[in-house]
Amino acid sequence: MLLIPCPWCGPRDEIEFHYGGQAHVAYPEDPAALSDEEWARYLFFRDNPKGRFAERWSHSAGCRRWFNVVRDTATNEIHAVYRIGEPRPVIA
Amino acid sequence: MTENLPDHPDWLWAAAEPKRSYDVVIVGGGGHGLATAYYLAKNHGITNVAVLERGWLAGGNMARNTTIIRSNYLWDESAGIYEHALKLWEGLEDDLGYPLLFSQRGVLNLAHSLQDVRDSVRRVHANRLNGVDAEWLEPEQVKELCPIVDVSPDVRYPVLGATYQPRAGIAKHDYVAWGFARAAAAYGVDLIENCEVTGLDVRDGRVTGVRTTRGPIAAGKVALCAAGHSSVVAAMAGVALPLQSHPLQALVSELLEPVHPTVVMSNAVHVYVSQAHKGELVMGAGIDAANSYRQRGAFHIIERQMAAALELFPVFARAHVLRTWGGVVDVTPDASPIVGLTPVDDLYVNCGWGTGGFKATPGVGWCYAHTVAHGEPHPLSAPFSLDRFTTGALVDEHGAAAVAH
Amino acid sequence: MAERRNADRRSADRRSPLAGFAARFETASAGGALRLAEIPFLTQLNLRVDAKSPAAERIGRALGTTLPVEPGSAVRSGDLTVLWLGPDEWLVLGPDEGEAEIGAGGAGLRDRLVEAAGSADGHVSVVDVSAQRTTLVLAGARARDVLAHGCALDLHPRVFGPGRCAQTLLARAQVVLVARETDEFWVLCRSSFAGYVAEWLLDAAAEYVT
Amino acid sequence: MTSRPGEVVRFRFDGRDYEGRRGDTLAAALLANGVRRVSTSVQLGQPRGIFSAGGEEPNALVQIETPFPEPMLPATTVEICDGLVATGLPGKGRLADRPDPARYDTVHAHCDVLVVGAGPAGLMAAAEAARGGARVILADERPAPGGSLLGTAEAVDGLPGRRWAAERAAELDGLADVRVLCRTTVFGHYDDNYLVAVERRTNHLGAAAPATTARERIWRIRARRVVHATGAHERFPAFAGNDLPGVMLAGAARTYVNQYGVRPGRRAVVLTTNDTAYPAALDLAAAGIEIAAIVDVRQAPGEEWARRCAERGIDVLTGHVVTAARGAGELSSVVVAPEDGGQARDVPADLLLVSGGWTPVVHLFSQAGGTLRFDEEIGAFVPGDTQARDVRLAVEVAGSARGVPTLSGCLRDGAEAGRRALAAAGFAVPDQAPPPAVEDEPAAAPARHLWLVPAADGDGDDYREHFVDLQRDVTVADVLRATGAGLRSVEHVKRYTTAGTAHDQGRTSGLLTSAITAHALGLDVADLGVTTFRAPYAPVSFAALAGRDRGHLHDPVRVTAMHDWHVARGAPLENVGQWKRPWYYPLDGEDMTAAVLRECRAAREDVAMMDASTLGKIDVIGPDAAELLDRLYTNMMSTLPVGSIRYGVMCRPDGMVFDDGTVIRLAEDHFLATTTTGNAAAVLDWMEEWLQTEWPSLRVHCTSVTEQWATVALVGPRSREVLAGLAPGLDVGNASFPFMTWRDAEVAGIPARVCRISFSGELAYEINVRSWYGLALWEAVNAAGVTPYGTETMHVLRAEKGYPIIGQDTDGTVTPQDLGMAWVVSKKKADFIGKRSFSRADTVRPDRKQLVGLLPEDTGRLLPEGVHLVEPGGTRALGHVTSGYRSAALGRTFALALISGGRERVGERLHAAMGEEMIPVTVTHHVLYDPEGARRDG
Ligand SMILES: Cc1cc2nc3c(=O)[nH]c(=O)nc-3n(C[C@H](O)[C@H](O)[C@H](O)COP(=O)(O)OP(=O)(O)OC[C@H]3O[C@@H](n4cnc5c(N)ncnc54)[C@H](O)[C@@H]3O)c2cc1C
Ligand SMILES: NC(=O)c1ccc[n+]([C@@H]2O[C@H](COP(=O)([O-])OP(=O)(O)OC[C@H]3O[C@@H](n4cnc5c(N)ncnc54)[C@H](O)[C@@H]3O)[C@@H](O)[C@H]2O)c1
Ligand SMILES: Cc1cc2nc3c(=O)[nH]c(=O)nc-3n(C[C@H](O)[C@H](O)[C@H](O)COP(=O)(O)O)c2cc1C
Ligand SMILES: [Zn+2]
To answer: Per the CB < 8 Å rule, is D688 touching A66?
Structure first.
C-alpha cells in the first residue's frame, strides 16, 4: 500500500487513487495526419522503464484531481509529485 | 499418510560457462526460454544455444505461478496456441523423462452475474468449435465437482454456474522448468546462470550479439524470453513493446488434508485456487494497479483475495496463509502475448504472457523455436505478431475470456 | 392553497435512504458509548468556482464566510457548513429546504449562490446534490474507534479535529468525513451505498455498544 | 511438577485429559504432564517433540478441535484454556466442515514510531520514543511484554526481568499516545512503512470469549519510523538423530523452567557452540534437572561460566561434539565424542539441549527491502545499512535483531534506536536517561560456528538422520543430493529439497540449510546467502485477512430508493455491478418466461414502468460543455437545442464502443449526460481525465448526480395518458412535448423532470425526481394501474428494437459501425475520441463482426446467448449470439448476434451450433420491431 502524496490532500493510501500510466503523453495534434504506425504508438505504446517513471495518478476517492508522480519502479520510491501542466522536475 | 512428492532425478544440469559465441542466444532462463532451447535442439537440430539467466534458473515467474493449465480461451487464435500447448503437456512427462505432476483435475471458471453467464457460455461454444473440451455446469454440478464451493443463492455474488474444462489442471512448476532444463542441457545447450544481459549489439539493423555481466557473447540470433523484463531488454536494441510490467501475487496455505479436488477460478469474486500435491492451497491474486518491477505486491490485494476466497469457500476461514510472494508480469493492451519477429533482423521476441503464460510453456517453446529456426512465424503464433497493434487486429482476451491465468 | 397541500404531501412522501435504520441506530446508541443517527434531507450543493475569482468572493459573502482554501478544512457559518472537496470544489451543507423546485425559482440556497455567482465570470457551477448523499452522525467516546476500523485516515484529534473534513474511503464506500466536534463526526455517503455503510457501521460498533 | 502454582486449566490432547496452569502454552502444559511426543513428521512419519518455546517451533504442530477446528498451530504458541481439545498433527491440518462463527476485524493505526518486539531492546526503544513525545505503538506476539526476559532469570534494575518489563509496559500503556499490543504479531512490512499485524484477542479466553469481540484483528499500521527489535532465534547444528523428541533448543528449555516452572526432562546433555547455553544449563540444574554434561565444541567457554559449572559440579566437555542422539521414538541417550576423533561414549539422557548460536530475526527488515550482511562474529546474517540502497528505509534495528549479544547491550541499543527514530520523525530528542542496571553479565568467550557434526564411525554417515529442516523432514543427505544434481543456488536447493517451505518457514533452520549447501559447494555461506524472506512472518488465518469484508459486507450492495418495494413485491434481483436490480416481477404461479412475456405485452400494448434509477447521471456545465461533449461522443452534441435530448456513443481512442446514453441539454452551457449502469463511475473518470490532463483550458465542470435522481421509466401506448393524469400541469401533446425533449413539471405532486425518451421503442417517458421521492413517485405511478417490469423485459424490448446493451452486445472489440450505428458517428467533426481508429486496416475490414438479427426457423426455439453461428456444413465460427429472447410482440423467438460480415449476410441461412445439434436460423436486419419508429414518435 503505497502512501501517495496528493498535491492537495497530502499523503493518502494507494487505494484512494486511480493509476493513469505514463505521464506527458499528449493527444496528437491531428490524429488524421498520422500513419497507422504513428497512431498505434499513441494508442498502445507506453514507456515501461525499470527505474524512474513519470506517471499519472488521480485521487479518485479524494479530491478527484489528476497529478503526476515520479516514482522508481524498481523500488517504488516516490521522488516527486507535481501538478498537471507542470514540467517533469529534474531529480538529482 | 501423506502424499510425498516424487523425487527429482539425481542429475539436472551443469552450470555452464559462457562461450564467445552461439548460433542462438536466448535471453531469460524461465520456462519459455528453456522450452524454446529444448525444441530448438529437439525439433530443429540447433544445439549451439545458450540460455542466459540473470539470476537462478527459472527463478522468475516460472518459480512464482499458480500453475494453472487450460486451453479454454475465447478466440480461435488463442485456442490454437493454448490447445497446442495442452496437447504437448499431455505427453510431456514421457517426452522429458521427468515427473511433472501434471494433473488433469479440471478447471472451473465460475460465473456470478448474468453477463458472466453469457460470456461463459459463449466461451464454451467457441471452445467446442475449436476442438477444446468445455462444458457449462449448473451450480449443483459445480457443487458435485467441488463440494466446498458455496453455491447457495443468498451470498453476495451467488454462483450461477461455471465453465468446466476437464482436461485442464495443474503441474509442478519447478519440475517443469527443470525437466526442460535437463533435457536441453542433455542436447548440449549451455544454461548460464547469474548472467544478466546488459546490452544488445545491433549492426546495420541486425542483432549480432549480447553484452552481459559475464562478458560479451556473439550470437547469430537472439531470442528474448525475459517475461516481466521484456521492455527493458528490448529497449537495449531500440525496440519498443506495448507492455506494462506489474507485480502479481500468489500465496499458499499450510498443508491440509484434501479438501479441494479441482481448480476453481472466479472473475467477479476475484480468486483462483487449487490444492497442490503436497496439500497446500495455492491461490492467486490480482495485479497491482501501478507499474513496478518489485517482485512483491501490495497487501490490500491479499486481503481482498482472502475476502473473495471466503465468499466462495467458507471452510477456508481458519486456514492460514503461510507465504505470499510476487512476480513481475508483462501485460499487453489486449491481454494476449507477442511472439515473433521484431524490426531488428535476427532478434525475436516472446513476451506479453502477462498473468497466464505458464500453461503455454511447451506450446510457445515449440512455436517460438520454429520461428527462430526458420526466421518466420509458426502458423500458430503468427496472429500474435507485433504488427497487430498497428493494424488493429488485436486478440482481445480481456472482456469475454474470464480471468487470464 | 393547492401549493400548500403539495408541499405537505411532498414532505410526507419524502423518504431518506436510511429511514429503515432508525430503530437499529437507536439501539446502538442506547449504551452511551456511541451515538449513531441519520440526519436526513440536508441541503447539499456542489460548488465549483475559481477560489481567487470575484465570483468566489461574492459567493463567500452570500454564505457569510470565505470559501475555505486549505485542503481538508471545513468552515461553519450559521447553519451552513462549507467543506473543501478540491482546489476549486466545495460542498455546501445547509438545513433541509424540502420544498425547493427542480431548476431555479424560489429563495433556496442554490438560487442564492447562483445569483451571487452571477453570469459575468461564466465558469461557476452550483449543482444540487441534496439527495445524492445522506448524512450520518457518529458521535461519542468510541466514534473514532469505530471509524478506524474502516478509514485509513489518521483520526487523531490533533490531526483530524473539529474543522477538518476529507473525501476518503470508509470500508469499501466513498464518503465525505467531517469532524464536527471533538467526538462527533458526520459521514456523508452516497444514497445507494447508505444501507451498506449503515450495516457496516453497526457491525463495527457491535463490540463497543454491547 | 504437579505443585506448580496458578489457576488450573483442563484440556484434552490426543484423546487424554490433562491439567495445566493458566498462562501455559499447550507445549508447556504437555511437558509438565510428561508428554514429549506431540506430532509425527510429514514425510517420514517419525515422532516429533517440542523443540522450541515460541513461534519458531518446527515440530510440535497441533490441530485444534475445540472450541473450533483450526489446523496447524505450534503447541508453543497455543495458550491453553478450559475445554481446549487438540491433537498432534501428522503433517497436515484439517479444516472445519462448518462455518466459522467468530468475528474478525481490521483497524487502521498511525504512529510516529512503531516498535516491533517488546523485549528489552523494544521496551527501551518505545520508552525513549514516548519520552520524546512521539506517538508510539509497541507490538509483541507473546502474551506479555519482556521478550527473552520472560524466559531468563535475569534481573533488570534490581527487578526480575519479567516484572521490570511488565512495569515498563504498563507505564507506556498509560500514556495517551502510546499503545501496547500483546499477542500481536507484526507479519508484514510493506512499502512506505505500512506494516500489518494480527492480534489474537480471544483464543486464550476459550468459551469465555465475548461474542462481539473480534477473535482476530488485523492492524494496518502506517508508521513514520519503525524499530525492529525482533530478537534472535536460537539455531542448532545438524547431527544424527537431531529430530528425536527430547532434543530441544537450550533457550527454550530455559524458558520452560523459568517462565512456566516446567521441567522438560530429568537428565540433560547440553550441546553448544557458544556461551548462552551455560546459563540455560545452570537454570535447569537449579530447577533440579540433572545436567549430565555440557558438550562444548569450543576449546574453552567463558571463564565465569566454566567456574560456575565447576561450582555446581557440572561436567564441561570442551572440544567435544554430540555425534548422535539415540532412542526409540524418544531420546534415551546421547553419543558424545571428542571432535578430533577420540572415543565416543553413550550418555543416558532424556533431554538434549542444543545451541548452535543465534540468528537475528531479520524477516521484517528484509521484507522492507533491507539488505543483509554476514556477521562473522555471530555467524549469521544481520541487517545491513538502512541507507545503503536506492530505497532509504525509515527503519532502525535494535538489540539481538542486529546481533547485540548482551542484555545491557540490548537495553542500550534499544534506547539509542528509540532516540534515532525520534530524531528522524522530527522530534527533539530529550537528554539521555541512565540505562537500566544489569547486574550479572559475565564476559563471553567467542562462539564457534559449527553446522554439521559427522556421525561417529559407522553410525549413519550417509547423513540421512542429520536433519536440517525438521518440519519438512529434510536431511543433510537431501541437501547433498541437490548439490550433487548440479544445483548451485540455495533457492534451487530449497525447491529441490523443500527445506524452509513449511509452516515455520525455516526460522531455526534456514541458515543451516545455506551453511550446509555452502559447505558442499566449497563456498562461503556469506557469499551464498539465504532464501528470500516473505510475508507473513508467521501464518495468518484467511478469516483474519478477510476481516469484516464477508457475507453481506463482502462488497457494497447498491440499491435505489424503490428497492424495498421491489423486494416486497417478490422480484428476484439481478446483480449489475454492485447494484441490485429487479429482474422481473412474477405474479403468483408465474415462472420467469411467463412473467417476462406478460411484462413485455404490457409495455407494448398497454403501459408499464421500470426503475431506471441506476443509470449514471453526470451534470456537465460550463461555457465549453458542448465542446467537451463533442470531443467525447462520436456524434455532435453542440447542435442539440436547449430542451432537447440526443442519444450518444462514446468510444475509446481505439475506436471501440465504451459507453452510450442520452444527453439532455438543460441550458446553453448545461447538459445532463446519462451513462450505462455499470459505467457511471468510469465515464465520469473518463471525462475528468480528458478535462484535467488533456484539455485543462476547457471551462467545464462535471458532477455526478446519479443518486440525486430517482428515475421511473413509463412505457407503452397508454403512457401519455397516465402521465397526463399524474401531471395535470404538463401539456403532454405530441407537438408540445415531442420525442427527445424534456420538460420540468409536477408529477404526482412531486417536482420532476420528465424526459421523453424511449429505450423500448414505445411511446415512453422517463420521470426523474429527487431520489427521496423515488418511492412516492413509483407508488403513485403504479397506483395508476401501470405494470412494473424488470431488467429482463427491458432487455427484450430494446433487443426487439436492435438497441445494443454495451457489455452484452459489445465486448470491447466492437465499433459503432459494427453495431449498425454509423449514423451516430459524425462525419462533420474534425476529430473526436476514437475517430482516427475507424480508418485502421482492421476496422475497415468488410468481414468484421457486425450486429444482426437472427430468426430461428423453429419460431419457438430460443437461441442461448453465447451460441456460435456457422455456415451450413461449416465449422468455422462466424460469430455468436449476444442476446436471445422470446418476443411477445413478434410472436416468436429472435436473437441479436455479432457475425462476420453480418450485414452482407442478411437473408442468409446459418446454423447455430449447439454442440452436435445445428439450429437453422435466418439472418435479418437487427431492428425487428417497428423499424420506422412510428410508435415511439407517435
Ligand atoms: C503470481 C503469478 C501467478 C501466475 N499464475 C499463472 C497460472 O496459474 N497459469 C499460467 O499459465 N500462468 C501463470 N502466471 C504467468 C506465468 O508465470 C508467466 O507467464 C510465465 O512464467 C512467463 O514465462 P517464463 O516462464 O519464461 O518467465 P520467467 O520465468 O519470468 O522467465 C524470464 C526470465 O528472464 C530473466 N531475465 C530478465 N531480464 C534478463 C536479462 N536482462 N538478462 C538475463 N535474464 C533476464 C528473468 O530473470 C527470468 O528468469 C503467473 C504469474 C505470476 C507472477
Ligand atoms: N546472541 C544473542 O542474540 C542472544 C542470545 C541469547 C540471549 N540474548 C538475550 O536476548 C535479549 C535480546 O533482547 P531483544 O529485545 O533484542 O530481543 P528479545 O528476543 O528479548 O525480544 C524480541 C521480542 O520480539 C518479539 N517479536 C519478534 N518478531 C516479532 C514480530 N514480527 N511481531 C511481534 N513481535 C515480534 C518476540 O516475541 C520477542 O518478544 C537480551 O536479553 C539478550 O541478552 C541474546
Ligand atoms: C505452486 C507453488 C507452490 C508453493 N508452495 C509453497 C509451500 O508449500 N511453502 C512455501 O514456503 N512456499 C511455497 N511456494 C512459494 C515459494 O517458496 C516462493 O515464495 C516462490 O517460489 C517465489 O520465490 P521467492 O519468494 O523466493 O521470491 C510455492 C510456490 C508455488 C508457485
Ligand atoms: Zn487529493
So the answer is: yes
CA distance A78 to chain C (A): 20
Domain interval for residue D685: 616-707
Residue D400 Cβ < 6 Å to ligand 2: yes
In a domain, D590, yes or no: yes
Per the structure, the count of domains in chain D is: 7
End position of a domain, from candidates D707, D722, D753: D707
**D229 plus D371 within the same structural domain:** yes
Whether D568 and D715 share a structural domain: yes
The pLDDT value recorded for residue B403 is: 45
Atom 34 of ligand 2 has which residue's CA nearest to it?
D140
Chain D environment of C10 (Cβ under 8 Å): 749-751, 773
| Last residue within a domain, chosen from D307, D334, D356 | D356
CB contact under 8 A, C152 and A62: no
Please say if the pLDDT value at position D387 is more than 90: no
Q: Is residue D618's pLDDT more than 80?
A: yes
pLDDT digit string (tens) for D516-540?
999 999 999 999 999 999 999 999 9
Cα-Cα-Cα-Cα dihedral sign, residues D29, D31, D32, D35: positive
Q: Does the C-beta of B29 come closer than 6 Å to ligand 1? A: yes
Per the structure block, which three cell numbers stand in for B24?
542462438
Q: Which amino acid is at A60?
A: S
Q: Is the dihedral of CA B381, B385, B391, B393 positive or negative?
A: positive
Same domain, D729 and D587: yes
User: Within 10 A of D210 (CB to CB), how many other CB atoms are there?
Assistant: 12
| Contact in structure between D565 and D543 (CB atoms under 8 Å) | no
Question: Which residues in chain C land under pLDDT 50?
Answer: 1-2, 4, 104-106
CATH of the domain at D574: 3.30.1360.120
Chain D residues touching C129 at Cβ < 8 A = 703, 705, 708
Higher per-residue pLDDT: C37 or D387: C37
Determine, yes or no, domain membership for D836. no
User: What mean pLDDT is reported for chain D?
Assistant: 96
Closest CA to C172 of D685, D550, D197: D550
Pair D719, D781 in one domain: yes
CB of D506 closer than 6 A to ligand 2?
no
User: What CATH number should be reported for the domain holding residue D243?
Assistant: 3.50.50.60
CA of C19 to the centre of ligand 1 (A): 53
Beta strand pairing call for B280-287 and B271-275: antiparallel
Angle at D482 between CA D477 and CA D488, to 5 degrees: 130
B196 interfacial to chain A (CB closer than 8 Å): no
**CA contacts within 13 A on the Cβ side of B385:** 16
* High-pLDDT (> 90) share of chain D, %: 95
- Residues of B within 8 A of A40 (CB-CB) are 389-390, 392
Q: Are residues D514 and D590 in the same domain?
A: no
Q: List the one residue out of D223, D213, D200 whose CA is nearest residue D115.
A: D223
**Per-residue pLDDT at C167:** 98
Quote the cell numbers at residue B246: 506489474
Instruction: Say if residue D678 is in the same domain as residue D720.
Output: no
Average pLDDT over residues D238-249: 97
CATH of the domain at D630: 3.30.70.1400
**How confident is the model over B37-63, as a mean pLDDT?**
98
Record the pTM: 0.97
Q: Are residues D731 and D608 in the same domain?
A: yes
Tell me if D191 and B298 make a contact (CB, 8 A cut-off). Answer: yes
Question: Looking at residue D148, what is its pLDDT?
Answer: 96
Within a domain: D133: yes
Backbone angles phi and psi of D936, in degrees to 5: -70, -30
Which residues 6+ apart lie within 8 Å of D587 measured at CB?
D595, D598
Same domain, D601 and D628: no
Q: How far is B389 from chain A (nearest CA, A)?
A: 6
Q: What is the pLDDT of residues B143-182, one digit of tens each?
A: 999 999 999 998 999 999 999 999 999 999 999 999 999 9
Give the mean pLDDT of D479-501.
97
Please state, for a pLDDT cut of 70, what percent of chain D lies above it.
Answer: 99
